[in-house]
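[audit] Reproducing an earlier prediction to check determinism. Same input, same settings, fresh worker. If the tokens differ from the archived copy the diff job will pick it up downstream; this log only records the rerun itself.
[audit] input (95 residues):
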Amino acid sequence: MNRLIIFPIIITIIQLISFGHLYYIHKHGSGRFPADFIELNILAVCNIGVLILAYFLYYKAEIKLNIWLAPILFALITILLLFGIYVIMWINEYK
């Protein structure tokens, strides 16, 4: 397989494993420490790196591979989910 095709597939698999681990931590984690929220923050920061990488390898590439849309979509979902959680926390703080 082409190296350009394998790279977004590996990123997508890592993102799916991270989502699975985040769900497992949320369901079976300790109630005293918000490990799932901290892990979501770390995952969002890593996904900003994925978006920067996708900018150079997808948007600026001569040959655009549609397989890059999967990691881009997962990265945007993660960042928007974290942003939504911060908005909810901000609204609840000033009620």
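[audit] rerun output stored. Observation attached for the diff report: The CA atoms of residues 18 and 43 lie 8 Å apart.
[audit] end
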